[in-house]
Design a protein that fits this description.
By secondary structure, this protein is α+β, with helices and mostly antiparallel strands. The chain contains 6 helices and 6 strands, in the order αβαββαααββαβ. It is 49% helix and 27% strand. The chain has a 6-stranded antiparallel sheet with strand order 2-3-4-5-1-6. Helix 1 (5-26) packs antiparallel against helix 3 (81-105) and helix 3 packs antiparallel against helix 5 (121-131).
Length: 177
């Protein structure tokens, strides 16, 4: 006879396992965004600063169009050891919980369900294979006449959202309203 708590616990644990699956999958998702930014500098000096910034971050120029002030950078983004280990441990805990609930729900096969924990390194492997990729950053610079006839630069950047945040902070760029 089955205790009424076990089926409901199984359903909740199964929902948590599904959430864990989507969490691991989202760790490798491409998060490219486009944003317009303003700089208090002229386009030429800003372009030089941007090239130096990306060179320091191991990006290389793949396409440069001086007439239109467009530039495309490319760099290899390495996966994080910490995140790979964290996802593996998180998956191990989730599969351990699922194995515990399954062993209680189906006691005849209880010993087999503990083996689910052995699948946890697949989460780290999946992240490692998906997170290491070639990242592209595209920029287009336009000169804009600002307040008091001061020349400002409007930059349209298409990049990963973390790269955008770092770029804004490093070069003191402001979002365009």
């Amino acid at each position: 006879m089955m205790i009424p708590v076990i089926p409901s616990t199984f359903v909740l644990t199964l929902l948590l396992a599904i959430g864990l699956f989507f969490f691991v999958r989202a760790a490798t998702k491409d998060r490219t965004q486009q944003e317009k930014l303003m700089a208090e500098q002229e386009a030429d000096s800003l372009l030089t600063q941007i090239q130096q910034y990306f060179a320091a971050r191991a990006y290389r120029v793949t396409k440069l169009n001086r007439e239109d002030n467009q530039i495309t950078f490319e760099g290899l983004v390495r996966p994080s050891w910490f995140l790979a280990i964290f996802l593996t441990l998180l998956t191990a805990v989730g599969l351990l919980c699922l194995g515990l609930v399954l062993s209680m729900a189906i006691p005849n096969l209880g010993e087999l369900f503990w083996g689910l924990v052995l699948l946890s390194p697949l989460a780290g492997w999946f992240y490692w294979k998906g997170a290491g990729r070639l990242e592209k950053v595209s920029l287009k610079l336009d000169a804009v006449l600002g307040q008091g006839n001061q020349t400002q630069s409007l930059i349209t950047v298409t990049a990963h959202r973390d790269e955008l945040a770092t770029l804004k902070q490093a070069l003191h760029l402001k979002p365009c309203e």
